[in-house]
Design goal:
The chain has 174 residues and is mostly helical. 83% of the residues lie in helices and 0% in strands. It has a domain of 100 residues. The longest helix is centred in the middle third of the chain and has 47 residues. The relative contact order is 0.10.
Length: 174
């Protein structure tokens, strides 16, 4: 075993005899110069920059689209809740608003249907009346009778609709 080791050591050149070839520091200078040229090419070539940016931009766009869709769903749900609340308040304040309304027949029929549903099934009335309150809220929002009790709902619905429009525009731009 010692013979093999000594033969191997005699065969390999020692560090002191390694004067031939280029010095190691030249390799590092050439490597740095190559990296510098690559960096300058990257700065100069707009297509290359765009390709590299697009590689990282795709996951970011997906993430932004996901969050914008989630925010849009939340705002639409908020608008629906506000329309239901507006319909409930409109039904409660309907005797005061009867004389000022252009959509009196539609609202009267919806209020009568709601009362019939309340009488027919006393359990879980709110779930059954949600479509009626939503329709009532849409009608009241369309005609917008002047009432202090309903004014706060008008403002909140308008704000929710502006947010929905903004979010839809952002989704189109992505």
């Amino acid at each position: 075993m010692n013979e093999i080791r000594t033969a191997y050591l005699n065969w390999t050149p020692s560090a002191g005899n390694q004067k031939e070839g280029l010095p190691v520091w030249i390799f590092y200078i050439v490597l740095c110069a190559g990296l510098l040229l690559l960096f300058l090419a990257f700065l100069h070539n707009k297509d290359l920059r765009n390709k590299i940016n697009n590689i990282f931009l795709v996951p970011r766009k997906r993430f932004m689209k996901f969050w914008l869709e989630l925010a849009l769903r939340r705002v639409e749900e908020k608008e629906n809740r506000l329309l239901i609340q507006l319909g409930q308040q409109g039904a409660a304040h309907w005797p005061e608003l009867k004389d000022r309304s252009e959509a009196r027949p539609e609202i009267n029929s919806l209020i009568e249907q709601g009362e019939q549903l309340k009488e027919a099934s006393p359990g879980d009335v709110l779930c059954q009346l949600e479509p009626h309150y939503t329709a009532l809220g849409l009608i009241i929002d369309r005609i917008r009778p002047r009432s202090d009790a309903l004014a706060k709902y008008y403002l909140q619905i308008d704000e929710a609709r502006r947010k929905i429009q903004d979010l839809k525009k952002e989704l189109e731009n992505i």
